[in-house]
């Protein structure tokens, strides 16, 4: 039999995704996983994705990756205006959130995409705390000394009045919105501003061709921002979320009266000092970003030439902290406006602290007899408040939020300071009213002496104290958010803080990585395994990291819960440098279309068409699965009170190991009733949701238009199918249902009913039965274990409509050859007139892209059997790929499993 040519391979695997993992360059961290269709040019195929699109312009800051927002709610004219405003070139730092938020929301509810799953092993949440920045209101001597050194030396940062920082931010805001040209006058103006007001000029000439060039200015700014132990490193997840706390979460002396935190007047002063350093960091980031944008724009217009050596030096010197400061600067320039609101007259006390002395912020007009001084009053306000409020409304509708006194129109009124401007010059700018001042507004642990050290985990648990119009709401409504998981926390916090009924019934302490029961529904973060299992049920909804369900825990009323889970040993071991994402060659080798063979000598007989629903000895029983209950039984002494937290030395909000006070810690179980439709027998099965596993949406594919498949009784696989009766011709052409699979990929198919009946089993034991199994997936002679377990959740379920499909022969014949009974199965052809309308393929090629992004179609998916199989995986600790028939074929899912190192595929209708 002749080998397949390269052209024939391309035809066979047209529409089949191929899985990659490649480095983006030096100093860019872990490689970038991607899925591509290298042999297809049609946009309907190339645009297929395994994840949902961002659906609102208010949520666009969730990711640092360039993307197109599918704004299903907004005004088209407003979207067009925003697009025109961003038409000029922008600089994009080669540093993004991990896992990428674009891939976190898989097409299957409660799942993620290929890229996000691989990036979990190098997730941002795995990082330890930034040394010296573990808490909000105090800094270690190392940080203080470094800042003193930077301000007192003649090589670096000048000391600046806070008013000057704000004035320069106003100027940068105007400059950012202008369509400025790359002119020498602009370069000189930027040079003079930078080195006369903000930085000391460089001690030596850095560019002899042009000593005043933008490159010289960029190098100076990078040097200061890259200095260690000075600036907040926003590559850490907690600080991306706490950003708004420094700007809007000011404590007052009477804010906390329960003794739960050790804040004093001195610590409040330190927090205001940290706000000064944050504003200075934002200023330096804006100065750097504007210059990088100018160079990028000049390169785009052909009036600027950047030398490769300069690019290499920038990528080397601009560490991760610098690049995240650039993300902060972009968020600030696009969403925040600094305004003058009048003048302020305040007493002039004695200088306190080294920073006040150096900057002379509190010693102006010392000669005045009344010891008072007057100055402008500055405020910060959001530019797009209405857009953010509309996004919150969209979020509430998608989650089917109970209509209980929630009026999104009042959100902007509740956070009026964001709309009108929050004062920056005075400590009276606390968002807390005296009625709410008894609760801590702190997010995360604020007492470094008693901080709970976390062990490396792919997900960091986040908790917070909520209060009306708090800094969490202000962070969202202002739009000042950094890429990453923070947006999901801000959305839910803003929703709760502006629903008085929810605040009253749920209480002030929130577990934003757990779940809560409210008004006859349950809401779960996708970080919680309970949410990821319930998402597979009918009637569930998912939006921006949250899942709602009509299923509520038995016996529990309104309130927050923390679900007790543990990570699997395999996931714990595959983190950081040991993560699979670093094995670039292994990922691609384990998912190649020609398996372990030589691409120059691939035979037609090396391939089969895999199926999950063909059983040789007997058909699996027809069963009905019915969900019974979700059980959350609180552990003894798990409900912590404020008093017990103080006794243990914990702050109101804890990190990973301990839940917030007043929140129940519960192990979760689910119970199902399984009925045999033939015998009428019923039995209840209970599964523990104890492992923090993940589900991945199998990437969509489109069957090749260049392949016709012929059934042949002499082919090895077709011998298992009775072709007599309704199929008189043994070589009749059948419709395309999937891509071929190389024999390198061994798998075994197991019906869900068989899996349920097994009492004590392991994945290794199931895969080890490969060589002796009589199932369809085990026909290739081999003594080794199967690589993948396919769980059949399609065949024999009464609640699922079935369509009859005849499995196809595994042997390929060359185009144009005689299709004999011995070798005929596939024919590689050019598409004929009748090809496009035949079976699933004809419709799929034309409408695949629409179906992938159809929210209506997505909501229809879900069933009790799908919840059951997810529950089994959660109890056993199996990460699983969910492959939905007619969205993607089984062969492509098996290859993706090889790329990800996942050993279980759930095949659903």
From TrEMBL:
Start and end residues of each stretch annotated as Disordered: 416-460
Basic residues bias locations: 451-460
Annotated protein name in UniProt: Helicase-like protein
PANTHER family xrefs: HELICASE-LIKE PROTEIN, TPR_REGION DOMAIN-CONTAINING PROTEIN
Lineage: Eukaryota, Fungi, Dikarya, Ascomycota, Pezizomycotina
Tree of life domain: Eukaryota
